[in-house]
């Protein structure tokens, strides 16, 4: 009778935790990997859409392109999210309204910066927003080190030049502040509003804000078919797709990890600018990109399981 308890618990207790914990442990890991893959796809889609949208600047200007982006995003997200606006409570409406305001301001300031300082520098300046989130919310020393390395890369990329456009840089910094707010508000909306209803409602409000602006731009600068096509493509690639992707990502990835990992956007912007727009980079720029990539790799390798 005593030998059975002595021998039975050993084989019974060893496999049980492994078989019982494996599915539970695998699920968060899969969610984290899916979140990382979604972030990469979202960033690539965003920068490609921004590059395509910049081709319409000579006809529509940054304001016109952003207006069309907002319309397209609203149509796509309304079809996907199908928000039940009448059922929204005040606790759901106020973050949605703020997200709509931040969303429109972020796009307008970023595209205005792209028009003045180029895709790579504008996106790099915008990255300072997520970087600030990473620094403010980090509790690990390694995350702080990664953020500092990434910041060094950003400083290298945005170093002053004789032809520095300070207004364009200020617009990029405004986009950075909006992106930081976007991260936090999008996370709040994702928690309070089921599915994609919050994203759809915010995009609809933002589109309504830009409706009179779009009318004025169309009257002053009659659009061409090519310009409208580029703006529509920018709306799909740089608004609708990333919006839904970020909503999914922020439910599986902590805010500080999201902010730090999104530093890959300057890398993607530089590559898209080089391939799509012919914007060549020098050795200092590639050194800055390398620092950002190293920060991302270090953060991923040292992240907790």
Automatic annotation (TrEMBL):
<feature type="transmembrane region" description="Helical">
    <location>
        <begin position="257"/>
        <end position="277"/>
    </location>
</feature>
<keyword id="KW-0812">Transmembrane</keyword>
<feature type="transmembrane region" description="Helical">
    <location>
        <begin position="197"/>
        <end position="219"/>
    </location>
</feature>
<feature type="domain" description="EamA">
    <location>
        <begin position="167"/>
        <end position="299"/>
    </location>
</feature>
<dbReference type="InterPro" id="IPR000620">
    <property type="entry name" value="EamA_dom"/>
</dbReference>
<dbReference type="InterPro" id="IPR037185">
    <property type="entry name" value="EmrE-like"/>
</dbReference>
<feature type="compositionally biased region" description="Low complexity">
    <location>
        <begin position="1"/>
        <end position="23"/>
    </location>
</feature>
<keyword id="KW-0732">Signal</keyword>
<feature type="transmembrane region" description="Helical">
    <location>
        <begin position="166"/>
        <end position="185"/>
    </location>
</feature>
<comment type="similarity">
    <text>Belongs to the EamA transporter family.</text>
</comment>
<keyword id="KW-0472">Membrane</keyword>
<protein>
    <submittedName>
        <fullName>EamA family transporter</fullName>
    </submittedName>
</protein>
<feature type="transmembrane region" description="Helical">
    <location>
        <begin position="283"/>
        <end position="301"/>
    </location>
</feature>
<feature type="transmembrane region" description="Helical">
    <location>
        <begin position="50"/>
        <end position="81"/>
    </location>
</feature>
<feature type="region of interest" description="Disordered">
    <location>
        <begin position="1"/>
        <end position="24"/>
    </location>
</feature>
<feature type="signal peptide">
    <location>
        <begin position="1"/>
        <end position="20"/>
    </location>
</feature>
<keyword id="KW-1133">Transmembrane helix</keyword>
<dbReference type="Pfam" id="PF00892">
    <property type="entry name" value="EamA"/>
</dbReference>
<feature type="transmembrane region" description="Helical">
    <location>
        <begin position="93"/>
        <end position="111"/>
    </location>
</feature>
<feature type="transmembrane region" description="Helical">
    <location>
        <begin position="225"/>
        <end position="245"/>
    </location>
</feature>
<feature type="transmembrane region" description="Helical">
    <location>
        <begin position="117"/>
        <end position="135"/>
    </location>
</feature>
């Amino acid at each position: 009778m005593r030998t059975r308890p002595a021998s039975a618990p050993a084989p019974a207790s060893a496999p049980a935790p492994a078989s019982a914990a494996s599915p539970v442990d695998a699920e968060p890991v899969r969610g984290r990997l899916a979140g990382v893959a979604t972030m990469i796809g979202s960033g690539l889609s965003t920068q490609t859409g921004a590059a395509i949208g910049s081709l319409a600047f000579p006809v529509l200007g940054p304001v016109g392109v952003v207006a069309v982006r907002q319309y397209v995003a609203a149509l796509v997200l309304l079809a996907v999210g199908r928000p039940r606006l009448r059922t929204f409570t005040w606790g759901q409406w106020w973050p949605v309204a703020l997200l709509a305001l931040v969303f429109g301001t972020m796009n307008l300031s970023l595209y205005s910066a792209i028009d003045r300082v180029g895709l790579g520098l504008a996106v790099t300046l915008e990255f300072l927003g997520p970087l600030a989130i990473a620094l403010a919310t980090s509790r690990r020393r390694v995350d702080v080190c990664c953020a500092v390395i990434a910041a060094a890369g950003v400083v290298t990329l945005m170093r002053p030049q004789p032809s520095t456009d300070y207004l364009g840089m200020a617009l990029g910094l405004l986009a950075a502040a909006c992106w930081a707010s976007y991260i936090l508000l999008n996370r709040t909306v994702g928690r309070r509003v089921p599915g994609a209803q919050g994203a759809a409602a915010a995009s609809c409000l933002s589109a309504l804000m830009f409706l009179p602006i779009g009318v004025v731009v169309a009257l002053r600068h009659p659009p061409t078919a090519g310009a409208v096509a580029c703006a529509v493509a920018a709306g799909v690639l740089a608004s609708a797709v990333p919006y839904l992707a970020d909503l999914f990502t922020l439910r599986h990835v902590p805010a500080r990890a999201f902010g730090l990992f999104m530093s890959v956007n300057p890398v993607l912007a530089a590559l898209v600018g080089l391939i799509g727009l012919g914007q060549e980079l020098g050795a200092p720029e590639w050194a800055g990109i390398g620092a950002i990539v190293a920060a991302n790799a270090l953060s991923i390798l040292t992240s907790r399981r």
